[in-house]
UniProtKB/TrEMBL annotation:
Keyword Isomerase in record: yes
UniProt protein name: muconolactone Delta-isomerase
Complex formation: Homodecamer.
Catalytic activity of the protein: (S)-muconolactone = (4,5-dihydro-5-oxofuran-2-yl)-acetate
Pathway, per record: Aromatic compound metabolism; beta-ketoadipate pathway; 5-oxo-4,5-dihydro-2-furylacetate from catechol: step 3/3
Top EC class, one word: isomerase
C-alpha cells in the first residue's frame, strides 16, 4: 500500500535558508541625554553602525529605514525566536537610549511574495 504524500509548509520560513523564523517590525526612537558630549554620541553611532551592519550581513536585520524628520528608525527583523530578538535589541550599543516598540508579523493573504 502506498502512503499519501505529506507536504509540510512552515508558516514563517526564511526565503533563502528555509529555516523557521519569526518576523518583527520594530520602531526605535533614540534620545541621548543632554549631558552626552558630541564625541560620545559619535562613538555610539560608530559602534551602532558596526553592530547593525553585522546583523544585516547575517540576515537577521532584513531592512532598516530612517523615519523622516525624527531620530528614529523602523526595521524588519527575521530571527529564530522572540528570545533572539530580545538579545539583539538589548545588544544595541544605543539600547540604553532607545524606546523600542515591537510588532510581530505574519503572512498577509494578499501578498504575492
Ligand atoms: O536609527 C539609528 O540611527 C539607531 C540605530 C539602530 C540600528 C541602526 O543601524 O542604527
Amino acid at each position: 500500500m502506498t502512503r499519501p504524500t505529506v507536504v509540510r509548509v512552515a508558516v514563517n520560513q526564511h526565503p533563502r535558508s528555509g529555516e523557521s523564523i519569526v518576523k518583527f517590525l520594530c520602531r526605535m526612537q533614540i534620545q541621548f541625554p543632554e549631558s552626552m558630549s558630541a564625541e560620545e554620541v559619535a562613538q555610539k553611532q560608530a559602534q551602532e553602525k558596526e553592530y547593525s551592519q553585522g546583523l544585516q550581513e547575517a540576515g537577521e536585520l532584513e531592512a532598516i529605514y530612517r523615519v523622516v524628520g525624527q531620530y528614529a528608525n523602523v526595521s524588519i527583523f527575521e530571527v529564530e525566536s522572540n528570545q533572539r530578538l530580545h538579545e539583539i535589541l538589548s545588544g544595541f550599543p544605543m539600547y540604553p537610549y532607545m524606546t523600542i516598540e515591537t510588532t510581530p508579523l505574519c503572512q498577509h493573504p494578499n501578498s504575492i511574495r
